[in-house]
Write a structure and sequence with these properties.
Layout: H1 2-7, E1 9-15, H2 22-33, E2 35-39, H3 58-63, E3 66-67, H4 80-96, E4 100-104, H5 108-116, H6 126-132, H7 137-147, H8 149-152, H9 160-173, H10 177-183, E5 191-198, H11 202-218, H12 221-230, H13 245-252, H14 258-282, E6 286-289, H15 295-306
Parallel strand pairs: 1-4, 1-5, 2-3, 2-4, 5-6
Helix pairs in contact: 2-15, 4-5, 7-9, 11-14, 12-13, 13-14
Length: 307
């Protein structure tokens, strides 16, 4: 037992809602401990999606080595399974050079996939998804509650992707996806993680989000989206349906005003941040941080962890 624990790679996993200050904290910690950052944001993997994803600036990227940023074009798919594979390779490389890996980002599913693996459930069924396409979220969640109340209790009617996935698994197998999860063993993890997340008072977080969206527009978000469309990356792509890009695409198509698009981006980002906080609050063993006020104690904790 002791031998296998010693073989596990130590990781610092830094998460928290969008706009909470993860990038700044990660850079400071990495510089202090000789670390390298592995991106765990599902949209920052795409080239060309810079402003709307709050991707680290060229100056920030130059301060500390980064991995899994700008590795795909916007028309390529990237799943939690893909992330797990690519992140594992990056972490192994970092560890082989005697450096410390910091996994940083707000995509909770990616972090869970890396640390705990993925549930071995059936693959997707496009025909089933078509059947669910026009059903309201409240009705989908009601249906799920009848066959998998455990999963339904953790989901919001707006979380269509996970609701449909859970219904899909049940329809295909006759078993709830929660049953697959309960059978899933995590003993094969290769990592010994220190999981940290930034906690921030909601009103302050929302203020930061609103300000950041205004700055994104000032910094050229409209031009960024126009350029992506001009390169042939259509609005049907997953990357182009992400927050900030779908609204600006609608604005450029003449479907709303710029003010309306900005208002929607702020609203949708606030809602996303709330979902992130809900996700991370339910995770186990997270060390909650107050930042930037307590950097010295955070650094001390990290140094002690890596020993």
């Amino acid at each position: 037992m002791g031998e296998s624990t010693e073989k596990k790679i130590k990781l610092l996993v830094l998460s928290g809602p969008t706009g909470s200050g993860k990038t700044d904290l990660a850079l400071r910690l990495a510089e202090e401990i000789g670390g390298e950052i592995v991106n765990a944001d599902s949209m920052q993997v795409y080239r060309g999606l810079n402003i709307g994803t709050a991707k680290p600036s060229p100056e920030e990227l130059a301060r500390v080595p980064h991995h899994l940023i700008d590795i795909l074009s916007p028309d390529q798919d990237f799943t939690a399974s893909d992330f797990r594979r690519e992140a594992a390779a990056a972490i192994a490389d970092i560890d082989s050079r005697g450096k410390k890996a910091l996994v940083v980002g707000g995509t909770g599913l990616y972090i869970r996939a890396l640390l705990e693996g993925l549930v071995d459930s059936p693959t997707g069924d496009p025909e089933l998804r078509k059947e669910f396409a026009d059903v309201p979220g409240e009705e989908l969640l009601r249906r799920l509650s009848l066959v998998d109340p455990e999963t339904a209790s953790r989901l919001h009617p707006n979380d269509r992707v996970r609701i449909v996935r859970a219904l899909e698994v049940y329809t295909q197998t006759g078993r709830p996806i929660s049953a697959f999860r309960s059978e899933h063993a995590f003993s094969g993890s290769y990592y010994d993680p220190l999981k940290m997340a930034i906690r921030i008072e909601r009103e302050e977080l929302y203020r930061r989000i609103n300000l950041r969206v205004d700055l994104m527009v000032q910094d050229g978000l409209v031009e960024e989206v126009r350029s992506l469309l001009a390169q042939g990356y259509g609005r049907e792509l997953k990357a182009m349906r992400s927050i900030g890009y779908k609204e600006m695409t609608a604005y450029l198509a003449g479907e709303m005003t710029l003010d309306e698009a900005v208002t929607l981006i702020k609203r949708d980002t606030r809602r996303y941040a709330k979902r992130q906080m809900t996700w991370f609050t339910r995770e186990n063993d997270i060390y909650w941080l107050e930042y930037p006020g307590s950097f010295a104690s955070i650094l001390g904790h990290v140094i002690e962890f890596f020993g």
